[in-house]
Input
Amino acid sequence: MALYSDKVMDHFRNPRNVGVMEDADGVGEVGNAVCGDIMKIYLKIREGIVTDVKFETFGCGSAIASSSMATELIKGKPLSEVLQLTNRAVTEALDGLPAHKLHCSVLAEEAIRAAVKDYYDRHGIAYDPKDFPDEGSCPHCHE
Ligand code: FES
Output
């Protein structure tokens, strides 16, 4: 069996929603302490819905594929659903990642969460701090 699924290869070779958004409503940037890779997510939000999303990932192929799939999964979704997105859902949508690459998908989950928090902070919107655990405390990431 190939190491990477067809979906991973597709999103790696043709990533969706790549780029910078100058007028983003929320921006999240996170880094992986182990490998040094960085992911940045830009959100356009209207009436609580993610109407557009862009990403920049300076990282491995799995991180790029995870970012691409994650942006597809949250586009058009209300923030309440966006905050439910887990790296597991991203991985499943990609038909899996090798075990030693699972941590790459955690970056996407964390970057999206950070972008939503940035949106809330910029607009003075109250939120439950439990929705935004400190970086590095992600229960999915053990690397
Ligand atoms: Fe760093 Fe994949 S090896 S995010």
